[in-house]
Amino acid sequence: MTVTLYSAPVSPYGNIAEVALRMLGIEYKYVPTSPHGKEPDFQRASPLGRLPAVDDNGFTISDSDAVATYFDWKVNNNGPQSLYGGDPETRSKVIFISKYAQTDGRIISVGVMGLMLRGITDKPTVDKAIAKAQAVLKVLDRLVQDNGHFVGSTYTMADIAVFCQVLSFITGGGSIDAYPRLSAFYNKARETSVFKETHDRSLASMKKITAAMARKKNRL
């Protein structure tokens, strides 16, 4: 199987797709790509120019959920080992939390990190974004089960989606120290092999970006 993943280290949605591929045991080639990139292969895989996108031996699809669903079905055939759960109750809960993390969760990822990437640092704007993020973080903190997962007793798409959004929030300078259950979940997951590579690459990439922004600012 020749799978190419077009993504960016600081893209929470690209990271969701990558962790899902890794959890499913899919070997893939990682191609760093910018949203709306002009590379012909990426444009074929993602007509809307969005990340992530994959090319699986000529079959192309974009969107984190679409990518995860496609490969999960190929590997697990919608069976009990599915990343979405093996029964109706589990699947519905996984979809609910995953969807919440990827919609409302944009506030804690793109909202806060986006300000940093655009160089917006004025306190009122940053404080407003963080206040919105805190409302979502409180919900996620309540949703963590006593066993440290969001649904069931293994990592599902719910865990993957939450982790990657929180990763972007932290990468953008946010803190989850005030949310003990969410912090415990995140700290354990980031040391797990399926999450660690994505976690480390995202942080390293943001360090390079902020260093480049600082150099540019100093030249002005």
From TrEMBL:
One of its GO terms (biological process) is glutathione metabolic process. Keywords: Transferase. Residues 1-79 form the GST N-terminal domain. One of its GO terms (molecular function) is glutathione transferase activity. It comes from the Eukaryota. InterPro entries: Glutathione-S-Trfase_C-like, Glutathione-S-Trfase_C_sf, Glutathione_S-Trfase, Glutathione_S-Trfase_N, GST_C, Thioredoxin-like_sf. Residues 87-220 form the GST C-terminal domain. Homodimer. This is Glutathione S-transferase U2. It comes from Wickerhamiella sorbophila. The lineage of its organism: Eukaryota, Fungi, Dikarya, Ascomycota, Saccharomycotina.
